[in-house]
Amino acid sequence: MNPRLTASERMIRLLAVIPWVVEQQGAPLDEIVARFDYPRSQLVEDLTGVVFFVGVHPFTPDSMIEVDISDDEVQIRYADWFSRPLRLTPGEGARLLTAGHSLIGGDFATGDEGDEAASPLLRALTKLGMALGEAADQAVEVRLGHAPTETLPPLRSALNRGEQIDIEYYTYGRDELTRRIVEPLRIFSDNGNWYLHAWCHRATDERIFRVDRIRSVRLTGESVEHQASDSGGSFTPHGDDPRVRLRLHPDAAWVTEQYPTESVETDSQGRFVVTMAVSAAGWLERLMLRLGPKGEIVSVDPPLSAGLVSNAANRVLERYR
What we know:
Blueprint: H1 7-24, E1 27-28, H2 29-36, H3 40-49, E2 66-70, E3 73-77, H4 90-105, H5 115-132, H6 152-161, E4 163-171, E5 176-190, E6 193-200, E7 205-210, E8 214-223, E9 243-248, H7 254-258, E10 263-266, E11 272-277, H8 281-291, E12 295-300, H9 308-319
């Protein structure tokens, strides 16, 4: 058992523990620890220091969750407010329906049993749609992005098992193919692409890998040794990454939406002045070549130089000579 859990791991376990203990009408502390893989000290701390203070306005005793730990037995009683039927507004129902369909679209609801695993969720969403009636039309289609079918399932399997994997990965910024042993920490979708958040043994640090750039995946049978930090997103700049300051034509506003920026200003001519972190010179070269006359480098931190664009353009021309 892991001696310490992150805040997100504790919250996930706590949300599972509370209804289970209520349904059991009480449970031994040791059984909860074993069933939910919850370190005892953190469980007691969360029950007495978090759940005990959960309630609704006006936070009187009858509106708070009651937690009692006596003789290593845990009792949890819901406040009266929590026993009332949940009523969703049309907007809340539409958001719930959209979220449910996004899970099915991302294959989260399927496992080794295939469609049978997804059927309970499908039936629930069908009932929800019928109950919402016209409000269901407010739901939108969610596209989580494409990932090769031979890549995403083994990544999820490794994540669920807590197993290290050997991947062959194409690094776009350096235009190279490398092999790495990584420890899956999280799989997520961002801006239409699937990403693997993992501890990389090659980099000895956490890295974000685009799933569609993973050429092959092999399970190693070795258990993971690291846990995810609380950082998220598809790119997390490091403090020592060089920064670049760009001036962009209004037609190049997509750069501020597609890539992480540290500051965005507008000059007197309506152009964007953007500061960004650069993790690889090759990435900046490709971006500037793609922008063409609609983007220019105002300033750049070493070891990068303003001449990298012309150097990249010359290399491209050499290939056609």
